[in-house]
Design goal:
2 domains, single chain, DNA-binding, 10 strands, four-stranded antiparallel β-sheet
DNA sequence: AAGAGGCCCTGATAGC
DNA sequence: TGCTATCAGGGCCTCT
């Protein structure tokens, strides 16, 4: 489900709700996420005070005292729901996959605070938890991953050098977290449309200007998506709540057959599937 | 060693 | 209605 913007939205509400609080009780109903939740997970998490909730790429990072950390990855279908006893029936967050009503099926984990409950729901179970026991290990954990688009490291020299002699298409690189972290299948298509670049163009054939466009549009589009509360697709229930609205701004994603939204272009948006993932692009203005 | 493709899993929708 | 096939915001693993 969530790419960087959606995870950032979850992070913001989680941080607001659970910082300076301690987890009083942990309930694991299904240990079989993408990776098995170890037997000592509950005792590790319990009674630790949360300092802050941060994020790298699509990973949520719960910071405990004493430089201990708990990572959450939401996979394709993971959502986090906050149940606040003081505000019953109000959900701070954010269901990108389901309706904002509290789901009952697939609530694999519950983290219970005083007057507050955080529920991890994930139908497909591609998400996972990870425990990190010190600060060095946290750095190590993300060492092999590329910079986020917002990072100063994501600049022209880096991109050009990375693409030298690379025979893979540019769309695959945007999805490759070793190159850049946080972009997923929706935003990859949107970034390449904004940059007027064909997704199947080989990376080594990109010009300097095209690289610059990719860099600036990556920042721009992810920023816009965060400002719109992320993208909520496949969620057509008309309920109030903090649903994202960036799906209304999609210019190519899920727009197959539509006329290109670029005013000067009359091309048709095509969808192409490679290795089980769809790519959307305008046949006319993305060269 | 880079690159292509398969696979993990459940649910919603489309098509017959 | 009830079946089957296809597709879905990710990332890891294995082949060549």
């Amino acid at each position: 489900m969530p790419e960087l913007p959606e995870v950032e939205i979850v992070r913001q509400s989680l941080h607001k709700k659970i910082k300076k609080k301690s987890i009083k009780k942990v309930i694991i109903r299904n240990r079989n996420l993408r990776f098995k939740i170890p037997g000592d997970f509950e005792s590790f998490i319990k009674n630790k005070k949360i300092i802050e909730v941060s994020r790298f790429s699509k990973y949520l990072i719960i910071h405990f005292q004493n430089e201990e950390y708990f990572l959450i990855h939401l996979g394709m279908s993971g959502t986090i729901h906050i149940l606040d006893k003081k505000k019953p029936l109000k959900f701070t967050n954010t269901s990108f996959y389901h309706s904002p009503f509290l789901p009952e099926k697939h609530n694999h984990a519950e983290f219970i605070f005083d007057n507050l409950k955080v529920i991890y729901n994930d139908p497909r179970r591609f998400g996972f938890f990870e425990i990190i026991k010190n600060h060095q290990d946290l750095n190590k954990r993300f060492k092999s991953m590329g910079p986020e688009p917002f990072s100063d490291k994501f600049k022209l020299n880096y991109v050009i050098n990375y693409f030298k002699n690379k025979n893979k298409d540019i769309k695959s690189f945007l999805l490759d977290q070793r190159f850049v972290s946080g972009i997923g299948n929706i935003y990859a298509s949107e970034i390449l449309f904004a940059s007027k670049i064909n997704p199947f163009k080989k990376a080594k054939r990109l010009t300097k200007n095209e690289c610059l466009n990719i860099i600036s549009n990556s920042k721009k589009i992810l920023e816009q998506a965060i400002n719109k509360g992320g993208s909520s697709i496949r969620d057509f229930t008309n309920v109030s709540g903090n649903k994202g609205t960036f799906q209304k701004e999609f210019r190519v994603y899920q727009q197959e057959g539509a006329v290109c939204k670029r005013l000067t272009c009359k091309g048709i948006i095509k969808k192409k599937i490679t290795s089980n993932r769809s790519t959307f692009f305008c046949v006319s203005c993305q060269k």
